[in-house]
Amino acid sequence: TLIESTPAYKMAKGSAEDPVLSPAGWQSHLKELKGWTDKQAQQYVAKAIDRSSLVAAEKRYTTQKGLKREKAILAIERTGRGQIAPLMSQEQVAKALEGSTLTTGQRQAVETIVSTPNRFVGIQGDAGTGKTYSVDRAVQLLSSVNEAMNHGKTEDQPGYRILALAPYGNQVAALKNEGLDAHTLASFFHTKDKKLDERTIIVLDEAGVVGARQMEQLMRLVEKSGARLVQLGDTKQTEAIEAGKPFAQLQQNGMQTARIKEIQRQKDPELKRAVEHAADGNR
Predict the structure, then answer these.
(1) In percent, how much of the chain has pLDDT > 70?
(2) Per CATH, which fold does 84-279 belong to?
(3) pLDDT tens-digit map of 46-104
(4) CA gap 202, 39 in Å, rounded
(5) Which region ranges are annotated with the description Disordered (predicted)?
(6) Distance (Å) of CA 89 to CA 27, 82, 96, 106
(7) How far is CA 143 from CA 39, 97, 134, 195, in A?
């Protein structure tokens, strides 16, 4: 039997770029944006739905088992909020990125990876916005964190490491070309000694095509080991082959997410405009 999935809402007079979030997601968004309390955000969202300034997005349906998995994924993410120590302060990141050519969105992505207190975060961006490039810059910053950690010590402590995962082999090959230690999700799940600990940062590329079953499995491993998970993807580009759309649902329910909007890959202005047009859903 199909049942309605967690309802999501969008702004009645918004644009295609505006978020589609659950009521809890809107509350988190407003608390972060305006510094409101839980109660203030809750009351505002309830009124906005009542007055139809927030309107229901397209309904989604799932099975009882699917809904149970969806709720488990969202609960794991919520439990991970505020549970880890930031690797660098926002001020340190700003100083380290002074004079860099990163776009505003890419800077936000780098800051999210190294300055977050949350175990699970997302980086949402259209194809060609430089999500992987942002990870490269975060890796460079982590090297300096590791160096500082061992400065003046006789024995080196194991530093923070990035482990990249992706659903398919061609994506893994691209990540390896960037110099990352990369594996397919399937091969990672089959590895007996995963070597995960609190100094492991897992980067999941193409998170939009990862179904709920694999996402729940990965998030449970991350939670149990004390590791961190950064999900990269584009909710508009692809949908999961398996059941569920956890990357989109996590964003809708308030997972901290950096949004990269500036497309970098297309150098020809006409082509770039066409890609941006398509990215906004105007095909």
Answers:
(1) 84
(2) Rossmann fold (3.40.50)
(3) 898 888 888 887 777 677 888 899 999 999 999 999 999 999 999 999 999 998 999 99
(4) 34
(5) 263-283
(6) 25, 14, 11, 17
(7) 41, 14, 15, 19
